[in-house]
Automatic annotation (TrEMBL):
Taxonomic lineage of the native organism: Bacteria, Pseudomonadati, Pseudomonadota, Alphaproteobacteria, Rhodobacterales
Transmembrane segments annotated in the record for this chain: 12-37, 87-113
UniProt organism field: Loktanella gaetbuli
UniProt keyword list: Membrane, Transmembrane, Transmembrane helix
Superkingdom, taxonomy of origin: Bacteria
Protein's UniProt name: OmpR/PhoB-type domain-containing protein
Cleavable signal peptide: none
Amino acid sequence: MNISSATEGREIGNRIVLGGIIAIVVILAGAAVLLFVNLPDANAFNARVEQLFVENDTLTGNAEIKLLEIIAQSGTAFSDTLSSYRFVIFVLLVFSTALLVAAIAFLVMLIGLTRRMGQIERKGIEVNSLLISRDQKAVYLNNFEFKLTEAAIETLSVLAEARMDDEVLSGAEIEGVISGRDPSDCEEAAGATRIKRLRDTLGNQMVSELLVKNIARKGYMLAIDKDVIRMV
């Protein structure tokens, strides 16, 4: 896939996501409008009480008037309660909309991160420079400094030299180069232990696992371009 097609694909994906978010907002807004339209009028009860006063003007007794006043007060209380319910429903709708939009945004970010991690796993780390300084016992990876132990520096140096020669070293061969013995006299586990210690010293699991590749039934190698390696 070339750069233009990849960029076009990302733009289409962004448009789809934006369209989905807009659709959710529109649907929730439509549901809110329908809900508020179908809610009873807050003044409906008061209007009915007023109608009772008008239609029953013959009710002049103290008890009857008192009853109508109680009904009127009940209508006012109902109106206030319904108004508060409207506000609560509005807040809940806004909150649910925000949660849905945030959930979609996080989902898209997670999918994008997963795809990016998949690309990194397939291609390895994009390293522009790898400088190994034996004197300072440090490694500069894309200008990020990693302080290593002497044993880790030796292991990384062996891997770097092998990478510049397009070689893949087994654990026994790594141990043989570092110890100065013949690889046949070395154990595979010794070299594997050195690789593990190197990865532990690098610290960042993703960096160490992708930088030092384990090729099945062959050995270990640095998964970077040999032209970016420098040793001082």
